[in-house]
Amino acid sequence: xxxxxATDFSPHSQRAVRRAGILAQQTGADLLLMHVVDGxxxxxxxxxxxxxxxxxxxxxxxxxxxxxxxxxSLVVPGRMPDAxxxxxxxxxxxxxxxxxxxxxxxxxxxxxxxxxIRAAPCPVLVVxxxxxxxxxxxxxxxxxxxxxxxxxxxxxxxxxxxxAHVSVVxxxxxxxxxxxxxxxxxxxxxxxxxxxxxxxxxxxxxxxLEAEGLTGRNWTMRTExxxxxxxxxxxxxxxxxxxxxxxxxxxxxxxxxxxxSVTEAVLAAGGADVLVVPPPRPGSSDWSGRPGRPxxxxxxxxxxxxxxx
Length: 309
Description:
This protein is an alpha/beta fold and 309 residues long.
């Protein structure tokens, strides 16, 4: 496996370098420590490249995790994030690691980070947290599509599940629920109707994991009522997972599936680290070419049974 970590020598990129070092240790991966000097073709840029090369070596020297991995450095003139994207594509990078500033000094998510997660040919790990060690808690929201399957497979292939407790979360919406109270349906019957939908959601998720060959793992499966975007935002705020894994669908235009305002809000909040997983590249060993899987897995929708005296 090959990991590229982008650094600008700031404190948040130092976190990214350490996280990349831990991940490389866990998986035996090769690590490429990369810095991009803005501009090209001038004497000043050439001097800046030489200075950045010295600083890159110094940064690697103070990260103890890098002493035990195969770490190389790359300093190039160019533009962010294009230079990193080019390096990832041409060098067969499996995951890009980048730090994200947040808080009062960084009210919005950086353009570089957004550019990477929107266009990267591989998963992008955005590091928001301090790095005490390997991830212990990983949360993966799933919508039972190929995007979710790719996200779950990345958790396995990148070694993120080796030492972590993995929670798979599926959000479900109850058909017709908002109108039931207005029809005079008793509260206990509405609650029973919701629970029948919860059971259906759990069955669908079980069937999805089985169909994708992802059963038999010591993962926790959760179903939560609500719109997927609201459930993800609430989950991130309530549980503060160390790592949140988000799948994306489209490779053209803006990746809207689980990437959009919710993902950007989670990233900008600075709580969890976020792994954004795009679809496999055409021609890669993971490319299936399958369309998104429908949510139905052959289980009938529950019906509300109204009991009268």
